[in-house]
Amino acid sequence: MGKSVTLTYIAILASYLFGCNVANAAQCNADNCLRALFPTPSPAAYSSAAAFCATYTTTVNTQKTGFPTRATSACGKAPARYSSACSCRPTISSTLTSVTPTPTCLPTRPVKDAVSNGGFECGLAPWVAVDIVNTKHSITSPGDSSNFAYQFNQLGPKDPAADMNPAAVYQDLALVTNVPYNLTFRTFFDKCTQSEGFVGVMINRSPVYTIDACDKGAGAFKDNLVQFTPTSDQTNLRFEFLTNEPDAVIKIDNVSVVPLH
User: Fold this and answer.
1) Which helix (H) or strand (E) holds 170?
2) What's the CA gap between 20 and 12, in Å, rounded?
3) What SS3 string covers 22-54?
4) Cβ-contact 184, 144 below 8 angstroms
């Protein structure tokens, strides 16, 4: 591959990665210095690098100190390299707060598992989320040893109606009546406090299990096991979230329902 072809390929790749027109940017080189100065489209990394560029490129600069620490190994102390990287810096949305991969797949289930998309790797469906006043749900990353998990957020004081109708997520399952099943799932609580609350498990609207924030410790995913025998072949599995903590974060992941035999 000739030198001109190689440079063209690098320019195209940088344009794809950084969202800027490298070919049209004055004195822009799509090199490791550019990638080190703007490593990802995260607001924190972008803001610090953009602030540096805003002052560094106002005049012809020859300073050889005061460079962003994360870029010095790739850029060295050559002013021209920093000027080059700044001249074609990427543009990201001012409203971007996090970079989360988007699940793109069709929900499937392991053999004998009645739950579809139990790891939330394919988004929400066929689960159904129920949000109430001062709560929201999302599919967040990372999950429990996987890419995604279901996340419940309390955004303010608990709504008085939550005691009777809490926020929830549920799925209808096709089970065999009078056959015992194991329900397993993992829970995450961001902290252990008296007001952090709990996750309740309902089978056909009957409570069968609860776990609160301090039962197994906070800050990591924990195992849960529930054994039950359905009395109907159409079974509604429902997780309910109830907390008095105004900024509580609770997650569930890797939900599975399989017969014992």
Assistant:
1) strand 167-174
2) 10
3) HHHCCCCCCCHHHHHHCCCCCHHHHHHHHHHHH
4) no
Angle, helices 43-56 vs 79-87, to 10°: value is: 120
Who contacts 198 (Cβ-Cβ below 8 Å, separation ≥6)?
Answer: 210, 211, 212, 213, 242, 243
Percent of the chain with pLDDT over 90: 51
Please give the span between the terminal C-alpha atoms of the chain, in angstroms, as a whole number: 61
DSSP 194: T
Element (H, E) at 8: helix 3-18
pLDDT tens by residue, 224-247: 999 999 999 999 999 999 999 999
Q: Which of 33-37, 143-147, 197-201 has the highest mean pLDDT?
A: 197-201
pTM for the full model? 0.61
| Angle at 67 (CA atoms; ends 64, 68), nearest 5 degrees | 165
The torsion defined by the Cα of 50, 56, 59 and 61, in degrees rounded to 10, comes to -150
Q: Which residues pair with 129 in a beta bridge?
A: 169
Q: Which residue has the tokens 């609770």?
A: 250
Q: Residue 34 has which token pair?
A: 């550019």
pLDDT (tens digit per residue) in 118-130: 999 999 999 999 9
Q: How far is CA 74 from CA 14, 69, 89, 138, in A?
A: 16, 10, 16, 37
Instruction: Read off the pLDDT of residues 81-108 as tens digits, 9 standing for 90 and up.
Output: 888 878 776 655 444 444 455 555 666 6
Q: Which tokens belong to 2?
A: 């000739």
